[in-house]
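[User]
If only I could read backbone structure tokens as easily as an amino acid sequence. I have put the entry right below:
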Amino acid sequence: MNFFRIPKKLEILLLVIILFLGFAVRLYRFNGPVADWHSWRQADTSSVSRNFVNKGFDLLHPTYQDLSNVPSGLDNPNGYRFVEFPIYNVLQAGFSKLSNALTLEEWGRLVTIFASLLSSLFLFFLIKKRFGSAAAFLTAFFFLFLPYNIYYSRTILPDPSMVTAILGATYFFDRWLEEDLRFKIYDLRFILALLFTAAALLLKPYALFFTFPMIYLSYERFGLVGFLKKWQLWVFLIISIVPLGLWRIWMTQFPAGIPVSAWLLNGGNIRFKGAFFYWIFADRIGRLISGYWGIAFIILGILGKYIRKNFLFLLSFIFSSLLYVTVIARGNVQHDYYQILIIPTLSILMGVGAASLLEKVDGYKKFVNYGVLLVAILFTVFFGWYFARDYFNINNPSIVIAGEAVDKLTPKNAKVIANYNGDTSFLYQTKRSGWASFEKSLPEMVQMGADYLVLANPTQTDLGLGKTYKIIAKTNQYVIFDLRQKP
């Protein structure tokens, strides 16, 4: 689909402009507290980085503020946090240590933003090679300006960085296969592809689902039997998964720090139920991500006649995404941020589908196609913004104000109960280790080491605890109890 040609200098200029605008829109509420949508997972991630800053970079023993038994079902007095290998946290905390020009949270967002911009570049070059400049620009546009992705590609989560890593792996793997006739494993492109793949798997093991484009590229280059005989590919496979294997073996020594995750597969037997199809395909892809109108582009991307030559390449992305949402069924239904990983596939389909409307046609049909394309893109973005705009809001400002009060009034080494029904967003605001719920009775939690209790938006019942424990601060927005002192 190379009917739409752009001069090289103009292409570079347009790419710079779209990247700059993509960066600019991600600065919306850049300095806001970690109390917006899905702040729980963001707080847990940033908490690991905060401990790196305060306690040192112990990558093999990552910890966070939550000492509770909520994630793993086991008491966790050391605050271990064993999920993804803390590559993202090293970057966030490392930049924070190097410069105090930004807060820890702002550095985390900036890491994610630059990862997102790099993802759009990898997508651009992958798609340009097979579908031409128009499809490449439109793919990058959708990736950068779908409101859902604008929000999530400036959050403090490892998922967007995983997307960058697996796209980078695919891009350099493709370059290695196409240009190196001697197929050397010490080629820079091989090394980069290997590093990106290993990093993607360490950032999120779910990256394994998104290796199918690389498998297809190997098949395309060598054939089914041929690529199985290439020892270099087996070297690539083994070396890329060894770091993940070692990390998973190591973390089993710290079960209290490993959140229960089996439910993410098919909790409630939801896979292939009506609710599964509704939440994934109708609500998330159709409404939240595509703003309804983008579905037309996705259909064009799948069925358009211009994709026939590279249909298997496109299918490898589609298959990866479908396999991921199917296997991790409950996780994708439960959490809308799980769909971050399928945004590249959706962006490619939308970009290729939208570009099909730019085919060479004569007369008024050309203007009709351009008009339909413009209106559909605008509606996709506008409706997408309508559904995603509330994600940026701070729904409970009291937890931020209460957290600041705790940080001001209590010792740095104090342990705090910041009750928020297990959600660690409130605890994160206090900058203290402790618990995010009443997992046991108050006397038992005092014996476990709790020094203070903070409640946001206190009720009269909450204030009644003042008969047992000393109140050291009280407003309409919070109350803080010293659990070591009587009134």
About this structure: The longest strand covers residues 452-456.
